[in-house]
Amino acid sequence: MLAMNYRGPFRVRADQKPYPEILHPNDAIVRVTRSCICGSDLHLYHGLVPDTRVGSTFGHEFIGVVEEVGPSVENVKVGDTVLVPFNIACGKCAFCKQELYGNCHESNPEATAVGGIFGYSHTAGGFDGGQAEYVRVPYADVGPTVIPDWMDPDDAVLLTDVVPTGYQAAEMGGIKKGDTVVVFGAGPVGIMAAKCSWLFGAARVIVIDHLEYRLDFVRKYAQCEAYNFKSLEDPVLFLKKTTDWLGADVCIDAVGGDAAGSAMQTITGRKLMLQAGSATALHWAINSVKKGGIVSIVGVYGPTDNLVPIGNVVNKGITIRANQASVKRLLPRLIEQIKEGRLNPKEIISHRVPLEEISDAYHIFSAKLDNCIKPILIPPLARV
């Protein structure tokens, strides 16, 4: 089958790889019809995630058709069209029972924090992902969800990660009616977090980034304010000034370890890798939020240490909430939001690329070329 093949930092290609096999009675094999390149995949592509091995296939956002099922699978059948959450979750452990599907205790023997994730290094379990024609899906009675007949496939594929992650970012912020929310990062997740902030009652939503085309897009899509931090002498000072010197009620870090804006953070976190990525956005969030406010983190950082102003967290009485999105928990309400027309995820898709051209797709997305917001990949069989 055709699949993405990681060859090292900034090097990916489409190769022929073995067809996946049923390895456990509760496995399924899914023929992929759409997959995405996520901003989180760029952390892998840039070599920032430990134990990302040559030969890996990335891709934690995909939908497709069930081709095979193991003998114990009961909730999906051959021929079902399903969306597959990026969380690989057993559904039975202590954390899955709390609906913390991103922290499943059984799906990832490589870590004690995060659960299994499709196509996200051996730190996240070593599972191959969906940037391929076919993918093995463990715990097929738990994750895969049959896509409603009325739903556009382009909306469905964004329900595997981007929409739930943006929604949970807003949810973890505890946004109340009348709150001011600042989102750091105008990538797909930041765009969705800004959009979803209104659903929780925000009175003002501000997005901070440095790419003008993204800022233009989020202004229109999320009906929010958006500012280029390169045009601001000090983003924190600006945000304090525009909130009557109190700070925002909620700040969301939707950037993670690839953040720009601080030479020191970039050198230590992205160049020398002395910390788990550049924590610039997290610094800004902590310093921009009001006393007693909430910082919500969905940006990806590595498992090692980061230089974070923890003293400011303590002295300001800040609450920090962070996690991988529990996609399965959120799907029912998000499907309803799409059905009612309050969310329109497919509008963020800017590029549709054949799987064979995956190297070009990664380059375009990574280098921020051609006003790329969100690329999706179409395998050959899905184009027939």
Low-confidence stretches: none
Assigned CATH class of the largest domain = Alpha Beta
Q: Could you give the distance between the termini?
A: 16 Å
- CATH 4th-level superfamily of the largest domain: Medium-chain alcohol dehydrogenases, catalytic domain
Report the portion of residues in β strands.
15-25%
Question: How would you characterize the overall build of this protein?
Answer:
The chain is α/β, with parallel strands linked by helices. It folds into 2 domains: 2-161 and 326-383, Alpha-Beta Complex (Quinone Oxidoreductase, Chain A, domain 1), CATH 3.90.180; 162-322, NAD(P)-binding Rossmann-like Domain (Rossmann fold, 3-Layer(aba) Sandwich), CATH 3.40.50. The protein is built from 11 helices and 17 strands. It has helices at 39-45, 153-158, 162-172, 188-197, 212-222, 235-241, 263-271, 280-288, 310-316, 327-339, 358-366, and strands at residues 2-8, 11-16, 28-36, 62-69, 81-84, 87-88, 116-117, 134-137, 145-146, 180-184, 204-209, 225-228, 248-253, 289-297, 319-322, 351-354, 375-378. Strands 3, 4, 5, 8, 9, 16 and 17 form a 7-stranded mixed β-sheet that branches. The chain has a 6-stranded parallel β-sheet with strand order 12-11-10-13-14-15, with helices on both faces. The chain has a two-stranded antiparallel ribbon with strand order 1-2. Helix 5 links the parallel strand 11 and strand 12 (225-228). The mean pLDDT is 96.
